[in-house]
Design a protein that fits this description.
By secondary structure, this protein is of the alpha/beta class. It has one domain: 3-Layer(aba) Sandwich (Rossmann fold). The protein is 40% helix and 19% strand. It contains eleven helices and ten strands. The structure holds S-adenosylmethionine. S-adenosylmethionine is lined by residues 3, 6, 8, 18, 22, 44-47, 50-51, 68-70, 73, 96-98, 113-115, 118-119.
Length: 295
């Protein structure tokens, strides 16, 4: 795969984590995504299909195409989305976001979730997205902004692990703060930015009930541990730090004053009516290959 190293790995356990992550974050990130009935929608970097399942549940009248650069992710997605694929509501294709196998202006909307943080250069992907989008079509991007991670009371082991996690992602060619740059990236692509918002995912006094608090902390443990093998292999962390980080997260469950604040960024941008023409004239257009409907 042409992507840089992937911090989360493609293990079975990680694939299951993506499905749990999709379900956990749905109430935080999906309410702002509005897709008109009848829309042809593309998800770039669909992974194992976690977001496709949610998008089709929330917008039952759309059709979704998912592409991912990693065949192993799509193999899991084909099993996970068996019903949606049989119903003809979901189609999957192996492709890089840098070279989408679709004709110009094929889609009404494009979604990306946790993709751009993993690529060396997001602009070619956004340009491809713009190319395959119909005029007036929408792009929704949901991305990390890891610099905004905040925990109270201070948890030094968690802070150290978080730093190691983010440094590792940068070393792999990723961008753990890409969320802060979404509007600039969309503007540089020629898209019209409609809004950029935070999607706060917060543990504080308002999150009541042991089960909900444990669920919150479990999400964070899963996410942080998804990089543990790579971090250990590079001696960026040791087992003691991992244990202390897990303990620090666990202790937030029963700590009344605890706060864990994290806010991913979400962008909505619209393709300008004239941008297709301008792009072709600029010579930036990739040649279209096939139309929608692979696999
Ligand atoms: C963190 S996962 C997110 C998957 C899915 N969007 C979700 O939210 O569950 C990122 C996915 O992006 C894929 N990916 C990375 N670089 C890519 C690229 N250049 N083109 C297409 N997919 C890519 C990876 O294979 C991985 O499945």
């Amino acid at each position: 795969m042409e992507s840089p190293g992937y911090i989360h790995t493609f293990s079975d356990a990680e694939q299951e984590r993506l499905i749990r992550q999709g379900a956990f974050l749905e109430p935080y990130i999906h309410p702002v995504i509005d897709l008109a009935p009848g829309s042809e929608v593309l998800e770039i970097g669909c992974g194992v299909g976690a977001q496709i399942r949610i998008l089709l549940k929330r917008h039952p009248m759309i059709r979704l195409t998912g592409v991912d650069i990693a065949g192993v992710q799509l193999a899991r997605a084909r099993v996970f989305l068996d019903e949606e694929i049989k119903d003809g509501r979901a189609v999957l294709a192996e492709a890089s976001g840098n070279a989408l196998p679709f004709a110009d202006r094929s889609f009404d909307a494009i979604c990306m979730f946790w993709l751009l943080e993993h690529v060396r250069d997001p602009l070619p992907i956004l340009r491809e997205a713009d190319r395959v989008l119909r005029p007036d079509g929408l792009i929704y991007c949901t991305e990390v902004f890891n610099a905004g991670f905040h925990v109270q009371p201070p948890a030094p082991a968690l802070a150290r692990y978080w730093r190691a996690f983010n440094d590792y992602q940068v070393a792999l060619g990723g961008a753990p703060d890409i969320g802060a740059h979404l509007a600039d990236l969309a503007s540089a692509t020629g898209l019209s930015v409609e809004w950029l918002c935070d999607a706060p995912v917060i543990l504080d006094r308002r999150l009541t009930g042991q089960e909900a608090r444990i669920g919150f902390v479990t999400y964070w443990k899963d996410l942080l541990l998804s990089a543990a093998d790579g971090l250990l292999a590079q001696t960026r962390v040791d087992r003691t730090l991992i244990g202390d980080m897990v303990h620090a997260l666990d202790s937030l469950v029963d700590e009344d004053d605890a706060v864990l604040y994290y806010a991913p960024r979400q962008l909505r941008a619209r393709k300008r009516r004239e941008s297709g023409t301008a792009r072709v004239q600029d010579g930036l257009s990739h040649s279209a290959t096939t139309s929608r409907g692979i696999s």
